[in-house]
Amino acid sequence: MQNSECINNPRPQQNYADAKDSELLQFMADGVDAAFDVFSARYLQALNRLVYRLGFSGAESEDMLQDILVHIWQKAHLWTRQEGITARAWIYRVATNLCIDVQRKNKRQPVQNAVDIDMTHAGEDAARTDAQAENSQRQDVIKAALDKLPERNRMALVLVYYQEMSNKEAADSMGVSVKAIEALLVRSRKMLKKHIKSDEVLL
């Protein structure tokens, strides 16, 4: 009788879509596939932008993104050992470290003069206004200058200004202090402005 009731009244499934990042990582550490599906959907675009801005494009970018997602799935249990760092900061730490490791292993430099992924929309080029085209060109110039910065400087700017992380989260992602990230941001902005050779404040 009890078995019949269980069949007729199955337990409701966990709504992982409402779970916090930290909870998703815990579920993933327990091997819950549905939690990984939600995590992937939640972070796909953000990580895609990160990968692109750290120097990957095309098929290379897609491969890097998949490697990051799989690595986070496999290493989610390590999140439970972290103290004083948000889940989001840990996710970006894993992602940025993987990107840097691949670049160092392949002894490659970031892609130069790549079009910023946020400003590229298939089929919309013809409909761009002059203002949109000007903004797109400006972003291209920033992207090209960003690619010329040393990896730590580029990473600091990308995390804070493009991924919209707080200084604390960016510092945790890079494994440095908040004061260090603040100093790094000041130097990085100056370097970026020098590469662009413009008096305009870009960030």
In short:
This protein is mainly α and 203 residues long. The chain is built from nine helices and no strands.
Q: What are the key terms here?
A:
about 200 residues; Butyryl-CoA Dehydrogenase, subunit A, domain 3; about 65% helix; disordered N terminus
Structure description:
With 203 residues, the chain is mainly alpha-helical. The chain has a single domain, classed as PhyR, sigma-like (SL) domain (Butyryl-CoA Dehydrogenase, subunit A, domain 3, Up-down Bundle), CATH 1.20.140. The chain is 65% helix and 0% strand. It is built from 9 helices and no strands. The radius of gyration is 20 Å and the shape is globular.
Q: In the residues, how many domains can be counted?
A: 1
- Radius of gyration from CA coordinates: 20 Å
What is the CATH topology descriptor?
Answer: Butyryl-CoA Dehydrogenase, subunit A, domain 3
Give the low-confidence spans: 1-12, 109-132
* CATH architect. name: Up-down Bundle
Give the % helix: 55-70%
Judging from the principal axes of the Cα atoms, what is the shape?
Answer: globular
> How far apart are the termini?
67 Å
The secondary structure category is mainly alpha
